Amino acid sequence: MPDTLDEQLTKHLTDAHSIEEQALLQMKVAPRLAADPEIARAFREHLAETQDHERRVRELLEARGAEPSRTKDLVAQAGAVGMVLFARSQPDTPGKLTSHAYSYEHMELATYELLAMVAERAGDSDAAAVARSIGEQEGAMARRLEHNFDRAVDASLRDVGPDDLDEQLNKYLADAHAIEAQAIQLLQLGPKIAGESGLAQVLAVHLEVTRAQQDSVRDRLRARGGRPSRFKDFALRGGGVNIGGFFGAQPDTPAKLAGFAFAFEHLEIAGYELLKRVAEREGDRDTVELAARIGGQERTAAGKVADAFGAAVDASLSDLGVTVGSA
Ligand SMILES: [Fe+2]
Ligand SMILES: [Fe+2]
Ligand SMILES: [Fe+2]
After folding, report:
1. Which ligand is nearest to the CA of 291?
2. What are the φ/ψ torsions at residue 12 (nearest 5 degrees)?
3. What is the distance in A from the centroid of ligand 1 to the CA of 199?
4. Which parts of the chain are beta strand (E)?
5. How far is the CA of 35 from the centre of ligand 3 (A)?
6. What pLDDT, on a 0 to 100 scale, did the predictor assign at position 327?
7. Is there a contact between 266 and 305 (Cβ–Cβ < 8 Å)?
8. What is the pLDDT, as a whole number, of residue 219?
9. How far apart are CA 323 and CA 11, in angstroms?
10. Is the dihedral of CA 238, 243, 249, 254 positive or negative?
11. What is the residue-wise DSSP string for 91-150?
12. Residue 152 near residue 94, CB atoms below 8 Å
C-alpha cells in the first residue's frame, strides 16, 4: 500500500519534532559548557527560540490529527546526551561544542528546507510557511555561532601554555583526519540510498575530494612530526559523535541523506575554521593554508548538496511509492 504525500508530511513533522527535542536538551546544557559569556548567551537565546519551534511543530502535528512520536523523541534525546558527554570529554570542549552546535543548526536548517518542500508538494501552505520561518531562525543561530569561532578557540586554548600549542595543533589535525574518515563512510552511502538522483552524483564527486583531503591532512600531520590517531578515527566512527546517534536517526531516504550530508559538511567547515585559527596562533602558515583550502572545498560541497534538496525530496517520494494528490 503506497504512502500518501499527507503521511509523508506527517513523518517529516515528527522528525522535526524529535530534532527540536534533542535541541532543547542541548541548549539547556550548552551555556554551562561554553566557557565564554558571548557563546553562552547565544545558546540561552536560542533555547527560547527552540521552545517556540517545538511548540509550533507540535501544533502543526495536532492540527493534522497526529502527535509527536515518543520513540523518535526518546532516540533524539539520547543523541543529545551523547553529544554533551562527547563535548565534555574533549580537552577543547568549547571548540567541540561550538562546531557541533553549528553543524546541528545546519541539520535543523536542512530539515526545515526539506519539510517546506514536502509541504509545498502536499499543498499545505501553512506548514510550508512555518517551516521556512523556523528555518530562518536556525540559519541566524548558525551565523551567530560562526561569528563566535574566534571566541571558541580562545576559550579552548585558555589553559594551553605556549609550549603546548604545538601539540594541540597536532590534535586538531588528528581530529580533522578522523572527521574525514567519517565523511568517507557517510559519502559511501550515496549510491545505496540516493540511487540515481542528482544527490548521488554530488556525493560521488565529493567522495573523491574527501579522500584527497584526508591524505593532505595526514601528510601535514606527519610533516609536523605527528600522526593520525587510530583511536580517534575509530572512536568517531564507533560512538561519540556517531552521526546516527548525533542526529537521532540513520539516513534511510535520499532526503534524509541530503540533510545529514549538509550538516556533516558544516561539521567539517567548523572543524577547519577552528583548525585554521589554532594554526594562526601557532604561526604555522602551511596548516593555515591547508585549512583554508579544504574549508573552501567543504563550503562548495555543502552548497551543491543544498542545491540537490529538491531532487532528493522527489527521489524519496518516488522511492516510497508516494501517490501525489491522494491525500
Ligand atoms: Fe536550532
Ligand atoms: Fe572533508
Ligand atoms: Fe566534506
Report:
1. 2
2. -65, -35
3. 25
4. none
5. 28
6. 40
7. no
8. 96
9. 15
10. negative
11. TTHHHHHHHHHHHHHHHHHHHHHHHHHHHHHTT-HHHHHHHHHHHHHHHHHHHHHHHTHH
12. yes
